[in-house]
Amino acid sequence: MGRPPYKEELMIIDNINKTFPKEECYLAVQEGALLLYLRSLDLNSFKEAIQKWLVASDLLEVYARNNEKNIFAGILEQIENIGSYGIKGGKRVFVGYNQERKVKDRVGKIAKRGMHYYALDHGFSRTENKLPAEYLDKIICGDSEEVLKKLPPNCVDIVFTSPPYNFGLGYENSEDGIDWNAYFDKLFAIFHECIRVLKYGGRIIVNVQPLFSDYIPIHHIISNFFMENNMIWKGEILWEKNNYNCKYTAWGSWKSPSSPYLKYTWEFLEIYCKGDLKKSGSKENIDINDEEFKKWVVARWSIAPERNMKKYDHPAMFPEELVERSLKLFSFQNDVVLDPFSGVGTTAVVAKKTGRRYLGIDVSEEYCKKSELRLKEIL
Ligand SMILES: C[S@@+](CC[C@H](N)C(=O)[O-])C[C@H]1O[C@@H](n2cnc3c(N)ncnc32)[C@H](O)[C@@H]1O
């Protein structure tokens, strides 16, 4: 404060100290400074109480008259900025979280045995190349394996994609529902190219559904592939689609332990990094805000499935919001975003809307044309 407190300020400080338990939150004035001791707090009640006392006193007028900032608003802002602690009993907890950690000597353990041991001998180069101009901000119609082979190594920042799941969907110009070995051979040939064209520190995010009736855990098989190819598994996001309108039982399995049929209302985003968990980028190119960051690092996203599939006549689109959150959380503006199974261009559309560069590839001319139309609609 740098001055003695006003009587109105003292009144509010006194009210706070009487209202909130001293061992949780306490305000003291000491040598012209206002000190806040904070252990835990119900932030909403705190805000409401301060608001009430500010209105009841003449303090806001005093601040306006003296051209001073509202110190209580400043306190609230500072508390809100301490965002990384947990919530217990409806209160934000600011102290003592370390004591709750179950893992002892985490840093020592990492120093001794290393992290992501499966990806340490990667040998990836840090040299970066430019994506050639003829591919920048383009939708290319063709087989991704063939198209990607024409690109130099290390020229894209992030891959965001959803491959066909070999489930039997009616895509235009590609067969879905082929022999599983042939399916994985083709998928991995394309993913090999994705790893090659990805820059050091870049990310590959694959949207994949956990189970179909063939009992092939394709999300695990895909993860094994990336780990065998020295990519670091950064984690997974559970995309909760709240899709409860699926049928509830397979014939004969109703209310019987013989073979209950499990239902999934969610899909996964599996995230892999090339060479390093950290990605370089400049601060000015960050476009995620505080609230989004706090919300989205909690790895369970509730987002409704895409509703426009009929409009675009594509059987398996993902919603723009899924792409937007992922791009803002894992990439910077101006980054080059690749989708090798681009469909009707949802990834490219979001990349363009959020100030990123893009390359979308799809084997269907029809889907590519629709992507172009969607992209043209964005100013
Ligand atoms: C799950 S869809 C992707 C949909 C997309 N996320 C969207 O929102 O529009 C998979 C896409 O992969 C395309 N595809 C299948 N095999 C391909 C290949 N070898 N190269 C490029 N695209 C391929 C299909 O045409 C289909 O559009």
TrEMBL record:
Enzyme Commission numbers on file: 2.1.1.113
InterPro entries named in the record: DNA_methylase_N4/N6, MeTrfase_CN4_CS, RM_Methyltransferase, SAM-dependent_MTases_sf
GO molecular function, one term: N-methyltransferase activity
Keyword ATP-binding in annotation: no
Keyword line: DNA-binding, Methyltransferase, Restriction system, S-adenosyl-L-methionine, Transferase
Keyword Methyltransferase annotated: yes
Alphabetical GO biological process terms: DNA restriction-modification system; methylation
Catalytic activity: a 2'-deoxycytidine in DNA + S-adenosyl-L-methionine = an N(4)-methyl-2'-deoxycytidine in DNA + S-adenosyl-L-homocysteine + H(+)
Principal EC category: transferase
Record-annotated DNA methylase N-4/N-6 domain positions: 156-371
Transmembrane segments: none
Pfam families in the record: N6_N4_Mtase
Family to which this protein belongs: Belongs to the N(4)/N(6)-methyltransferase family. N(4) subfamily.
Listed name of the protein: Type II methyltransferase
Originating organism: Methanoculleus sediminis
Lineage start: Archaea, Methanobacteriati, Methanobacteriota, Stenosarchaea group, Methanomicrobia
